[in-house]
Design goal:
By secondary structure, the chain is α/β, with parallel strands linked by helices. It has 15 helices and twelve strands. The structure holds pyridoxal-5'-phosphate.
């Protein structure tokens, strides 16, 4: 590879972790690494086996047994490490597996962890309740922007877990500031970097120890593979790697191949998602039915200046708060619940699929119950929140679809008032 120091990250992502022809190696090679499926790997003789195991114990990544991955996974690990500027990367069968392994790696009974209010719902609902409570690890939620972290620190705080932008409302958090608080105290800073998918934002460069990515989203990019990644700096690597190994976390070579294939086009897909989403977000800002649009690159988004400073782009996630009074008025005029109106809005969309996850080529919509996924911020007085993933459809079709869904919101009232 040439010009690694000055080339654009988009260029490097296309050329990294590839089998390149060399005069003294293979003279002719395919563009992509092969799919190396293996559980058993065979050694030439006992001396080789001992030597491989010795070097593995010293931290070398080498072929020894399928549970530790094969060349296909290594290529994906290397590409993600290069993209994020990390030391090493470990792959997991889902984003949630990467996250729960980080909690298990850095926390022990009696420890305390601070968790950002805006984290991905299952961290609060499943990891806290089903893992931390049983492990006797205590936790407190901090404001999504991290502003109250100092007052919530305890002597036994061993980890700060943040997500920026946050899930559903994309609250921005100043990771530099968090790391300045965490570092001198020996506290591990782990960050969910799924929104930026390792490309638009580099938490490790801002002082985080582990960057966790749900590859399921934009890296895979086609809604057909589950995968997670933990990108580590040098100090977090051994803990993370040893814990992942103890838990038997492994991905298949076929899935690694698919994720690497997705990764190559991620920068251009992200740019297209961002262009569409910016158009939709701007259009939504002008709608009278909408109280607020959540999209970090909009100057009206809270914490926009952090996005401007720390991020190189944006993605396809747009959330809106429908105007509460408007929705309540329409609902009472029809004698139905506000929820029924939201259901009608969602059901009347035709290009937006209804389903979990995001990051594929297609548009999605999902109503969010913010009160269930926030405890520091009070969302009880807000209007209904809808999260859109803006896909790669032509934006004119998406805008027309949204327009007719807004019409459907008041269709019941119009029928009553001829
Ligand atoms: C989807 C998601 C995850 C979990 O990823 P899975 O691969 O679905 O387990 C974690 N964090 C964020 C922010 C996500 O959006």
């Amino acid at each position: 590879m040439q010009n690694t120091d000055t080339s654009h990250p988009q260029t490097r992502l296309l050329h990294t972790a590839r089998p390149l022809p060399t005069p003294d190696g293979a003279p002719v090679v395919p563009v992509n690494p092969g799919v190396m499926r293996a559980s058993t790997l065979l050694y030439a003789d006992m001396a080789t086996m001992r030597e491989v195991h010795r070097r593995r114990a010293e931290g070398e990544r080498n072929l020894s047994y399928g549970r530790r991955g094969t060349e296909t996974a290594y290529a994906l690990e290397d590409a993600i490490t290069e993209m994020e500027g990390g030391y090493r990367t470990r792959l997991f069968p889902s984003g949630l597996a990467a996250i729960s392994t980080a909690f298990l790696a850095f926390l022990a009974p009696g420890d305390h962890v601070l968790i950002s209010d805006s984290v991905y719902g299952p961290v609060r609902k499943n990891i806290c309740v089903d893992v931390l409570d049983r492990m006797q690890v205590t936790y407190d939620f901090i404001a999504a922007d991290g502003s109250d972290v100092e007052e919530k620190l305890q002597p036994r705080t061993r980890m700060i877990y943040a997500e920026s932008p946050g899930s559903a409302a994309y609250e921005m958090c100043d990771l530099r500031r968090l790391s300045q608080i965490a570092k001198p105290r020996g506290i591990t800073l782990a960050v969910d970097n799924t929104w930026a998918s390792g490309y638009l934002h580099h938490p490790l460069a801002l002082g985080a120890d582990v960057s966790l990515i749900a590859c399921t989203k934009y890296i895979v990019g086609h809604s057909d593979v589950m995968m997670g990644a933990a990108v580590c700096n040098k100090s977090s690597w051994a803990r993370m790697e040893r814990t992942a190994h103890a838990l038997g976390q492994v991905v298949s070579a076929d899935d690694a191949y698919m994720a690497l294939r997705g990764l190559r086009t991620m920068p251009v897909r992200l740019a297209a998602h961002a262009a569409n989403a910016t158009e939709v977000a701007t259009w939504l800002l002008g709608r009278p039915e909408v109280a607020q649009v959540f999209y970090p690159s909009l100057p009206t988004h809270r914490g926009h200046e952090i996005w401007q400073r720390d991020f190189t782009g944006t993605c396809g996630l747009v959330s809106v708060e429908l105007a509460r009074d408007y929705v309540l008025e329409l609902a009472s005029a029809e004698g139905i619940d506000a929820q029924d109106l939201v259901d009608r809005f969602v059901n009347s969309l035709s290009w937006f699929g209804l389903g979990a996850s995001w990051g594929g080529f297609e548009s999605l919509v999902l109503p969010m119950n913010m009160e269930a996924i926030r405890s520091v911020a009070d969302w009880s007085r807000r209007g209904p929140i809808l999260r859109f993933h803006i896909g790669l459809e032509h934006p004119s079709d998406l805008l027309a679809d949204l327009e007719s869904a807004f019409l459907a919101l008041r269709s019941g009232v119009q029928r009553q008032i001829p």
